[in-house]
Amino acid sequence: MKRSTRICGLAIIMALLTASQAWAQAEEPDPEQQEEEVDDAEPAPADEDEVDDEEVDDAEPAPADEEDVDDTEPAPADEEDVDDTEPAPADEEDVDDAEPAPADDEVEDAPSVEPEIEEPPAPPEADEDFDEPWPDDDDDEWDDDEWDDDFEDFGDDIDFVPLEELDDAMLDRITPVATFPFVEHSGRLRIRPRLRHGFDLGTEGTSAILPPIDTQVPQDQPADPDARRLRTAELRLDLAPTFHLSESFRVHTDLQLLPGVALGADPRHDFFVPGAPSADRRIMDSSVGDPLPVYVREAYGEMDTFLGTFQAGRMLNHWGLGIFANDGSGPDADFGDQVDRFSMRTRLFDTYFMAAYDLTDSGLASHVPGFDQGHSLAVGRLDTANQWTFSAFRSPLSREERERQAHQLADGSPVYNGGLYFSMRSQEGAFPFDGDDFDADDTQDPIYRGLQLYTASPWIQFLFSPEPDHRIRLELEAFGILGSVDNPTSDRVGFEDEEAPGETPDINCFNDDARDDFPAACRTGADGERRDRSVRQLGVAVESEFNFGGRSTFGLNSGFATGGDEPNWGYTAAPGDQLDFTRFSPDYHVDLILFREVIGTVTNAYYVNPYIMATFLDSGLQHMEIQLDAIGSRAFDAAGTPGQSPWLGAEFDLSLRYIDGDTFVAALEGGILFPFSGLGATEGTQRLNYYGDPGPFTDDQSPNMAWTVQGRLSWNF
Question: According to DSSP H, which parts of 348-467 are helical?
Fold first, then answer.
């Protein structure tokens, strides 16, 4: 058995020797040793144990080691490796068809036959593309040009497939396989210093920004009546880890640590606090607004099922450009729209379909008096708002889908994204107090509301890259809110007799049958006046981006939001009167001063925004950008402005940004606003914002110019 094993091993080695030139060159025996071991005219028998002592006619056998085998001599072989021209010792089953070969010990007396001596076979010809071995790094004969030519010839034989031509199945196969569970980290650290000058417009009440308090205190002799400049620096840290529990289960979170913290509040420098210094004197806790160490913006679970993806919890809500629903994920955002939702999303024909139930207002909730359950319980059902949301859209959600769209653009094909967002909201009633004021011993009567709202928001996006250095983007979003509310006030309704109204409603509007029989009564107050209002809101935003080669990008953005005739953008009007004003999300930024700060958002206005941006010092991952914006604005309804005039202002903004890939952004921005008469004060109208209650304006006032310089450092991870 041992001898048979050696024979098979020798046969395998012989096969490798005759099949590979490179191996033969690397393992070529020394010429002097070869002369001693091999006779060119005589065959060499195998090992002593495998060949009989009887001599072969006219040949002198030369002993050979197991490893010293000449390429021109017969070698032992197995069933498959048999040399037809040379005798080879074989096993009992290994018989050469041309020459008998001595077997092992069981056939020691077998006669030997003189083998036919032939010329040694020529080594196999090497591939013309690889006629030289791979050179060493220190080889003096290395020729870069010659090797480059050989590699180019070799590369011509390989079929390369561009990445954009890979099909979906191939992309799925090259996607890295994850090991569960794991955590996907993302977030942002932002530091934002801002200098704002004259944001109060000098009108003492037509801007949402108050003047410096130095102009008001001390009351008799203000410290600086001419002060107009405010400085602040803010810190915000967002953490948004996603916990991948398995391939089908995920938990999404979004946390703000130190939200809205104002820099520059070191209590160690406060030397005028009575008492002995304490350890907490070293804790920096200043913040803008209420101090919250951690604010949870998002926490929801996600599960993939055979029907689609199910989501449940509190999540950020975003749609299209973000004028209606904006998740606040932009680098300069401050808020973010949230929704408590149970939803199911599925994909069909490259289109996503989503249906959801939103808990927009669960109504009055409190602990049951006398029974502390450790959690809030709903007190009733009549004040609960019900909202159903549906959407159908085509937009990349996963990394693979984003890559496929990028490949499609690189191939010169246009990309279309878009969809429709639709929601229905209803609410029967409401309590005229907050949940914190609930008192089981002194309950108050609810207010019949009768709210029915329908919201629709179409969105479309067109992307096109006809050439590698050309880029076109056109995007539009609109939203409209239609509906009615029977009683938008905090007054009771249900009075049928308009001529002799009483203090107690005649109709119980919470009773469906009574409300259906007397619909007008449920819209009438105790004074006999109608309370119902119809809702008609419309907003549109358009963005464009063009780059036809080179370093310059330009475009034109525009939009409008409808409004009403209540002064001060409807902010100081009764709740029902505010329903006439369409309001964009405050995280949709058009400028630096007017809509973002002085008014607070786009409402009751038209605007047009041409811009141009240039890129320079581009080194691949790092580059710089400079952008110039001009924003002109006009009121939709002049009666809804503080100055009762349609023209609002002209603003010019300049931004300089240093960008390092997707990781770091440093921006320096400046803007100047030239306000027009629509932002001035009108005698007899109510002030929008001011210290104390000075009453209506006593005379007309023209607004003053405002300007700002802002910085932003943002680390994304």
Answer: 399-410
**Contact criterion met (CB below 8 Å) for 710 and 194:** yes
Reduced to 3 states (helix: H, G, I; strand: E, B; else coil), residue 145 is helix
- Asked whether residue 509 is assigned to any structural domain, the reply reads no
Same domain, 194 and 312: yes
Contacts of residue 447, defined as CB under 8 A and 6 or more positions apart, other chains included, come to 429, 430, 431, 432, 487, 489, 490, 491, 492
Rounded distance, CA 150 to CA 154, Å?
Answer: 6
Paired with 388 in beta bridges are 357, 424
Q: How far apart are CA 313 and CA 425, in angstroms?
A: 19
Q: Does a structural domain hold residue 493?
A: no
Give, in order, the Cα–Cα distances in Å from 471 to each of 417, 551, 651: 16, 12, 27
Q: How far apart are CA 602 and CA 348, in angstroms?
A: 36
Q: How many CB atoms lie within 10 A of CB 100?
A: 14
Q: Distance between CA atoms of 339 and 451, rounded to whole angstroms?
A: 19
Statement to judge: residues 670 and 651 lie in one domain: yes
Under 8 Å between Cβ of 425 and 360? yes
Q: What secondary structure does DSSP assign to 82-141, as a single string?
A: --SSS-----TT---SSS----SGGGTTPPP-PPPP-PPPPPPPPPGGG-SPPPPTT-TT
Confidence category of residue 626, pLDDT binned at 50, 70, 90: very high
> Residues 76, 56: contact at Cβ < 8 Å?
no
Q: Give me 687's structure tokens.
A: 């002030």
Chain-centre distance of CA 416, in angstroms? 19
Expressed as residue numbers, the domain containing 350 is: 187-275+286-387+400-429+452-488+532-716
CA distances from 421 to 192, 287, 541 (A): 34, 36, 15
Same domain, 156 and 191: no
Question: What is the Cα–Cα distance from 283 to 263, expressed in whole angstroms?
Answer: 13
Does the N-terminal peptide bond of residue 501 adopt cis geometry, omega within 30 degrees of 0? no
Q: 458 and 320, same structural domain?
A: yes
In angstroms, rounded to a whole number, what is the distance separating the alpha carbons of residues 102 and 398? 71
pLDDT tens digits, one per residue of 512-548: 888 888 888 899 888 888 889 999 999 999 999 999 9
Domain count, the chain: 3
| pTM (global) more than 0.90 | no
Same domain flag for 140 and 26: no
Tokens of 37: 């071991």
Q: CA-CA distances (angstroms) from residue 322 to 2, 294, 498, 712?
A: 80, 25, 46, 22
The C-alpha atoms of residue 50 and residue 7 are separated, in whole angstroms, by 9
Question: What's the CA angle centered on 587, arms 582 and 592, to 5 degrees?
Answer: 100
Give dist(CA 706, CA 229) in Å, integer.
10
User: Exposed, middle or buried, 678 (CB in 10 Å: 0-12/13-18/19+)?
Assistant: buried
pLDDT at residue 473, as a whole number? 97
197-255: pLDDT as tens digits: 999 999 989 999 999 999 888 988 889 888 999 999 988 999 999 999 999 999 999 99
